[in-house]
Amino acid sequence: MDWNTLASALFGADHGIVRTGDFLHGDVLFDGAPLTIIGTTHHAPIGVALALAQARLVLDTMARHPARPILLLIDTQGQQLRRRDELVGINRAMAHLGMAIDLARRRGHRVLGLVYDQALSGGFITSGLIADACDALPEAEIRVMRIPAMARVTKLPEAMLTELSQANPVFAPGVENYVAMGGLRRLWQGDLPAALRSALDDSPTDDRRASDGKARGGRRLAADVVQRVLHAD
Asked: Whole-prediction pTM value?
């Protein structure tokens, strides 16, 4: 689903979201209450400029609209692989975006992520995976690395990784596997406004991804490891 169709389904044809290049931004009304929309489109690579533009809007929302919810619309191919961005500090720009989102959460803003198209790598880690909760449309594509690339990095045969992906969500791309691992809270199907309403009503304030992954059988050990670290002497 393209971003304009999604926005119209959620907020009506006069939604007020603007596209500036690959950057989506705007203020919308939902059930009579304002939301800040921050997002990307066209499988945007997240470079320094785009990371800083998103962070700026998060900070502006905190300054001008305390406690207003923020909805992140996610469609990214990951970080920008370009020498210029590496030289000017893409790692710091993306960290700045992640810290801005985390600060918004700590200041009482509900921050929700919605993967409506594609979410890969660092572009997803510094947005939807830092939100209070991240959901997705069923047709979205989410992965960190394709199996052929994973085989090159791990030096393991593709056939072995393919076999592992059939039983272990950690090795497999796809929204259902990210739900199983707890990275995604739920999929939005059918009535999209109702799904957003539910997401706003029950967004958690604590990080439940590890416990969700354990309960769903997608990550069986992460929650226990977290507790052991937290309670270590």
From this structure: 0.89
